[in-house]
């Protein structure tokens, strides 16, 4: 058993695990055959509207080390202009940060949130990870907790929570970040917004979202679109993730390969970071070439071209972590595990 575990966790297993790409290619060929048969037998295609829930991601927080942020200075300054000089006719101003998954919207929001001039400008700052559960009562609780307030779930009801929120915000210029918003129901948004109008003039809500539809129902004073990093910024981020400090200078032969991998990531920060982390401290040129030349890059890509890069990262996981990853699908997005031991037991029982 120990030998098997060693095999799956060793770098030598890279080529074996990447063979998954060949299997996917065969599936695609079979699907092409099915499509050809559909045309041959004149079969009709029926479209049904299907609602797809957003993929799981862990809850975000507001802290960030400024030295880890690469290439977002211009974006940050643009947002700060609207943040520090909002519409004077509005009591509460909304700013939307919009972009595809993995573009770094949360990182950008953190950089703005922790900027020294922003910290000094607002009397109160709060950060809430929203995700797809846009329950107004839950969000009021999270806002109160972010501001340092106490929420007694046993004695609190909607009325007491809303009273506490109004008291908290009264006559204060506040900044509230609502990260990763998916709600497209304007009535729910209006209900939450109306509870937040008690602050002083100049208060701002910053919303990060992947959806232009979400942004449109917010009626923002400014919408900032987040694009990919530049070629140079992407390579800098990749090198930071793939090498120990200064190590890249010892292996100049790897940098041209890194440049090509970054290009295939389409300069999407999450994809760049994922593959950089995948190759961390791996200095064998053949392993880098396996990633660069893998057939999975030829797959049809999803929005933003991020899927192949993340699929490669998944393929690299040892088999026991792949199983754990699959087991987590049983839990809703942003689920908080209070007892990791119970999670481990449940995973092994399955």
From TrEMBL:
Organism expressing this protein natively: Juglans regia
Coiled coil: 17-44
UniProt KW Coiled coil keyword: yes
Record-linked InterPro entries: Apaf_helical (IPR042197), NB-ARC (IPR002182), P-loop_NTPase (IPR027417)
GO MF entry, a single one: ADP binding
Highest taxon of the lineage: Eukaryota
UniProt entry keywords in alphabetical sequence: Coiled coil, Plant defense
Record lineage: Eukaryota, Viridiplantae, Streptophyta, Embryophyta, Tracheophyta
Keyword Coiled coil assigned: yes
Domain NB-ARC: 75-245
GO biological process: defense response
Name this protein carries in UniProt: Disease resistance protein RGA4
């Amino acid at each position: 058993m120990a030998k098997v575990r060693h095999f799956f966790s060793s770098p030598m297993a890279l080529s074996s695990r990447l063979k998954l790409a060949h299997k996917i290619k065969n599936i695609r060929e079979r699907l092409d055959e099915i499509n050809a048969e559909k045309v041959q037998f004149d079969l009709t295609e029926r479209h049904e509207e299907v609602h797809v829930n957003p993929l799981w991601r862990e809850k975000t927080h507001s802290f960030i080390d400024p030295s880890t942020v690469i290439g977002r200075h211009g974006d940050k300054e643009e947002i700060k202009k609207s943040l520090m000089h909002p519409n004077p006719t509005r009591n509460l101003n909304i700013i939307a940060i919009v972009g595809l998954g993995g573009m770094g919207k949360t990182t950008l929001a953190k950089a703005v949130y922790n900027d020294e001039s922003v910290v000094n400008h607002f009397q109160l700052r709060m950060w809430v990870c929203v995700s797809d559960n846009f329950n107004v009562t839950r969000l009021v609780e999270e806002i109160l907790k972010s501001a340092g307030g106490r929420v007694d779930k046993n004695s609190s009801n909607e009325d007491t929570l809303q009273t506490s929120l109004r008291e908290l915000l009264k006559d204060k210029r506040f900044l509230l970040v609502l990260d990763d918003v998916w709600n497209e129901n304007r009535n729910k948004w209006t209900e939450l917004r109306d509870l937040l109008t008690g602050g002083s003039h100049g208060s701002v809500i910053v919303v990060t979202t992947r959806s232009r539809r979400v942004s449109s129902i917010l009626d923002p004073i400014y919408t900032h679109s987040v694009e990919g990093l530049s070629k140079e910024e992407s390579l800098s981020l990749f090198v930071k993730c793939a090498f120990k400090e200064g190590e890249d200078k010892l292996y100049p032969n790897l940098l041209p390969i890194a440049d090509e991998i970054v290009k295939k990531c389409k300069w999407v920060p999450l994809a760049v970071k994922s593959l950089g982390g995948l190759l961390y401290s791996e200095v064998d040129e053949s392993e880098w070439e396996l990633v660069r030349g893998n057939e999975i890059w030829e797959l049809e890509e999803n929005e933003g071209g991020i899927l192949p890069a993340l699929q490669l990262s998944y393929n690299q996981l040892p088999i026991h972590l792949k199983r754990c990853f699959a087991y987590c699908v049983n839990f809703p997005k942003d689920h908080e595990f209070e007892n990791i031991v119970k999670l481990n037991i449940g995973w092994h029982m399955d």
